[in-house]
Amino acid sequence: MPNTDHKTQTLESVTIRFAGDSGDGMQLTGTQFTNTAALKGSDLITLPDYPAEIRAPSGTLYGVSGFQIQFSSEKVYTPGDAPDVLVAMNPAALKVNLKILKTNGIIIVNTDAFKRRNLELADYQSNPLEDGSLDGYQVFQVPIMSLTRNALEDLSLSNKEKDLCKNFFALGITYWLFTQSLENTLNWIEGKFHNRTDMLEANQLALKAGYSYALSTEMFATSYSISKAKKRKGRYRNVTGNEALALGFITAAKLTDKELVLGSYPITPASDILHFLSKYRHFNVKTFQAEDEIAGIGAALGAAYAGAVGITTTSGPGIALKTEFMGLAVITELPLVIVNIQRGGPSTGLPTKTEQADLMQAIFGRNGEAPIPVIAAQSPADSFWAALEAVRIAFKFTTPVLLLSDGYLANGAEPWRIPDPSELPAIEVTYASDAEQFAPYKRSLDTLARQMALPGTPGFEHHIGGLEKDESGNVSYMPDNHDKMVHLRADKIERIREFTSHPAIDGPEMGELLLVSWGSTYGAIYTAIEQLRKEGYTVSWYHLRWINPLPGNLENYIHNFKTVLVPEINLGQLSKILRMEYLVDVRGFNKIRGLPLSTKDIVEAAKSYLKG
Amino acid sequence: MREPIINKAQFTAKDLAGEDIRWCPGCGDYAILSQMKKMLPKLGLPKENFVFVSGIGCSSRFPYYLSTYGFHGIHGRAPALASGIKLANPDLKVFVITGDGDGLSIGGNHFIHLCRRNIDITVILFNNQIYGLTKGQYSPTSEQGQITKSSPFGSIEPAFNPVTMALASGASFVARSTDREQKHLGEMLLRAAQHKGTSFVEVYQNCVIFNDGAYSDITDTKLKKDNLLIMEQGKPYVFGQNSDKAVNWNGNKFEVVPYNESTKSNNLFTHDEHGLRATTEFVLAGLSEQPDLPTPIGVFRNEKRDTYEALLEKQIEFVKQNKGEGRLVDLFNEGHTWTVD
Ligand code: SF4
């Protein structure tokens, strides 16, 4: 007898992970869940986690694609360490993800996929659904594939086509479990499949069938509800980091009243910025898909020279190819933003996974003394603001700027509070106005930025280039001139410190432990600090915005702690820089697994220093 | 905006003098620079609209020696810079100055894609068949067997033919000239500069230091007439001491036939820069590699095609018509949004 009096329980926060074959549509399913939860007012952060192969052989462990989302009535800073709920579409997805699931967590499995062949592919000696290995979890066995086929019985589609809808069936189950409305996804399906009415109907039916199945079978004794998050007033939308960067650059071009020229070559996980920007021709966005990484930055630099907002985007080995042009941008002192979506390296490394191992390269990786300011985005939505700031500094200091994001920020999503265009910071652009006084390497006394004049401006004809120049723009090999120019270029970057706001220290200004961090670890460390404080520990935290130049106020704190701990997804690159800059015996916490650091690990690492 | 110091096209070759020239005395580069200076005022454009972009090598110092806007880039990458410049400001008249090493070796990839896209840029390639600035190594256009610093026993690499590459890559204007035929060179530069789309001129250039006499068969006054073929639109390919020979297409290949000024027509194959068939076009470009046939100079191809930037502008206009001029409020509020009050 079905239990008819089911309860709805209110939770503060839930982490759910959808996992299946890379062809199972898990990214789409996760995105739909995300948008629906966001519309309901949850705060959230997502973590797509997918293989490099577009369609890895089905059923294999390495072909598993996952999408994790933490949604909450409180502000969330990470996609969650350990999922409360796992939706596993096949044995491989179960195997890969089981180890991170919370004890007593909910598992919804597609039993249809637990056949011998799939079990073998997933390296299972026996069926985990039968051998007791899932004891300690709440397992819900659902023949998702056959139920989807049943629901679509009356439609004249092949079984193969019907099976494509099974992810919506699974999504329907989770919508019931978390009392979400179907409406948003039904609308989405309608828009997406308007050219294929048969698939439109099938997907909608599958979603509703999944929902009804959970409702009528009462498979779950309890459904859960997450109250609206108490967020700052305003209008919100979900953005991924890559989307937010693109929005930021379009905005910067509007604010400067310039065209945006993106020179880029397709590379994972940066390509979405190119895709996104290429849709905005009506914003005078000129995307140039170059023949290679080098031409991508070359075109962006040429465009910057001719007066556009020049942007180039890349990842992994792509940044290595761009280094020569970065040197040219340094010596010609042109405003240019180079975006590096860091991914696992070296070489091709882990194309779809996240890492923070390009920091040293960003700061030092060029021939000669070639200083470039380096800014890091700290969350998906924050990428918008990082983009604006990067463009502002590029123009103010006539310099290339390196903006570091990473695979996790690029693909992860969170709600972005939509700013009022009138509240946005101004981006100043100045050009030389007095032809008599003009010399291309004459500088502002404030910023040391050089005078810029755009080709096409009468009376300001001049030369720039990769050879060392004197102030007039003439080639100069004079020893003293080179010494002077090397110093000027370095001093100019140091001056940026005086024109950027410095992060505030979070916690006491002296004590036992200071955490220093940069980039995408922000969320995990934020949550770790919260947890440590709940447990009664006193810790301080300083999260960098600009890593080159380092902010002025860090000097005031960094010497005041018994331990300075730097968690990073690399072998300790910021640690080395801080040791070098401040002569402090910095400790690192380093895990390079292609994944964001987990809150739990950071908490433990911090505690090990607090105890001692 | 200030008034232009020099009004529209009111400048002469003299006004174009740039920094002190540092090429070797006797270098063929001087002739190209001087023809360029003579040619620019004829374009009727204001001086500030010219941008010279270059890579690395002897030829790439060119922008410094003109008083126009100039961007001395990095090795092989001038086409990338120039493409960006033209994208950002299509009103500029952009030149790429390159050499055989810069344009066809390290920059080969950028060169072919520039031609393919048909961006309105004029490329002048100084071909001296050697690396000059690095002091004498063989280049991708050096002849097989050539003795150089890096090929003391002779280069074993076959050479590229720059005109063939430009044709194959889809450049819409392709020409060849030499540093010694000054008038011809000036005319080729002018026609290339006036062309809308990617225009390419290969200039045979003598490097007096590392490869002197590489083109002696077409520059030596005694040999020249028998070895140099100046192609002219609509005319047969006549050459020889007394204009008594012609190169004729026999349907299969080019061959030398006697030519008699008085009987002119003789059903000889005539040149058509607007529509040579691919086979003839490529064989013609390759005649320079055939010792028994003369080396053709002149315009190989001159065709009208939409430029990249024109198509881009058209697309922008099209999207604007459909979606309206982009506004930030709309951009920000796209897709699913929700309000928290
Ligand atoms: S090395 Fe050759 S190409 Fe270079 S400047 Fe001297 S003569 Fe000219």
The helix tally of chain B amounts to 11
* Structural class by helix and strand composition of chain A: alpha/beta
Q: What is the CATH class name of the domain at 13-214 and 303-308 in chain B?
A: Alpha Beta
Rounded average pLDDT of chain A: 95
Shape of chain B: globular
Distance between the amino and carboxyl termini of chain A: 57 Å
Bound molecules: iron/sulfur cluster
Q: In what range is the share of β-strand residues of chain A?
A: 15-25%
Oligomeric state as shown? heterodimer
Structural class of chain B: alpha/beta
- Which pair of chains forms the biggest interface, and how many residues does each contribute? A-B, 74 and 68 residues
User: CATH superfamily membership of the largest domain in chain A, which one?
Assistant: Pyruvate-ferredoxin oxidoreductase, PFOR, domain III
Radius of gyration of chain B: 23 Å
Task: Describe it.
The complex is a heterodimer of chains A (612) and B (341). Chain A folds into 4 domains: 7-226, Pyruvate-ferredoxin oxidoreductase, PFOR, domain III (Pyruvate-ferredoxin Oxidoreductase, domain 3, 3-Layer(aba) Sandwich), CATH 3.40.920; 236-423, Rossmann fold (3-Layer(aba) Sandwich), CATH 3.40.50; 435-499, no CATH class; 511-610, Rossmann fold, CATH 3.40.50.920. Chain A is built from 21 helices and 23 strands. In chain A, the strands form 5 sheets. In chain A, strands 10, 11, 12, 13, 14, 15, 16 and 21 form an 8-stranded mixed β-sheet that branches. A 6-stranded mixed β-sheet of chain A has the order 3-4-2-5-6-7, with helices on both faces. Chain A has a 4-stranded parallel β-sheet with strand order 20-19-22-23, sandwiched between helices. In chain A, α9 packs parallel to α15 (382-396) and α11 (293-305) runs parallel beside α13. The mean pLDDT of chain A is 95. Chain B is an alpha/beta fold and 341 residues long. Chain B is 30% helix and 18% strand. Chain B has 11 helices and 12 strands. An 8-stranded mixed β-sheet of chain B has the order 2-1-3-4-6-5-11-7, sandwiched between helices. A 3-stranded antiparallel β-sheet of chain B has the order 8-9-10. The longest helix of chain B is centred in the last third of the chain and has 16 residues, at 308-323. Chains A and B meet through α1, β9, α9, α11 and α13 of A and β1, β2, α2, α4 and α10 of B. β18 of chain A pairs parallel with β2 (69-72) of chain B.
